[in-house]
Amino acid sequence: MENVLVPVFWQVGLSISVLLLLGVHRLYDVVNDRSLLVRSKTDTSVYPERTKKVAANFSNQFELPVLFYLACGLYLLFGVSEAAGILPWIFVIARIAHTLIHTTINVVLIRFSAFAVSVLTVIALFVRLAGAIGESPLISG
Predict the structure, then answer these.
(1) Rounded CA gap, 90 and 84, in Å?
(2) Which positions, given as ranges, span the membrane (predicted)?
(3) How many C-beta atoms surround the C-beta of residue 65 within 10 A?
(4) The total number of structural domains that make up the chain
(5) pLDDT per residue over 56-100, tens digit each?
(6) What is the pTM of this model?
(7) Cα–Cα distance between 111 and 117 in angstroms, integer?
(8) Which structural domain, as residue segments, surrounds residue 118?
């Protein structure tokens, strides 16, 4: 069970960390430019570039990671979490790298490399899951 749950909690922690970072950035921005309180009501593009990068990354936390959560939940449901191996950790490490790149240097080609590792890992998780489901106590009896 730990094979899947610990990386899930790390991924959740990453999402919460990005949310907190976004809050710090927006608070800093508003303290330094009070007009943002009015201008950002309907248009968050008025924030500085560094804050927009963090906001975009926070949105990303609810895209591909959703498939990761689904896969891990299915591993747990079918009782085959050991079959996931190190794939959940590879996913989380790639997502941490993606976040660090996205919220700092934001070089798209480098960021895409981390994203590609994440995508391939999610695919591998589902492929391995499909193979492991036949071994599941829920299926085999």
Answers:
(1) 11
(2) 7-28, 66-93, 105-127
(3) 20
(4) 1
(5) 999 999 999 999 999 999 999 999 999 999 999 999 999 999 999
(6) 0.93
(7) 10
(8) 2-140
Nearby residues of 113 by Cβ (< 8 Å), 6 or more positions away: none
**Predicted confidence (pLDDT) per residue in 8-35, tens digit:** 999 999 999 999 999 999 999 999 999 9
Q: Which of 56, 63, 69 is nearest to 11 (CA)?
A: 69
Cβ-Cβ contacts under 8 Å for 56 (sequence gap 6 or more): 102
- CB of 36 within 8 A of CB of 30? yes
Q: Alpha helix (H) ranges present in 1-141? A: 2-32, 36-39, 49-60, 64-77, 87-103, 108-132, 137-140
CATH of the domain at 27: 1.20.120.550
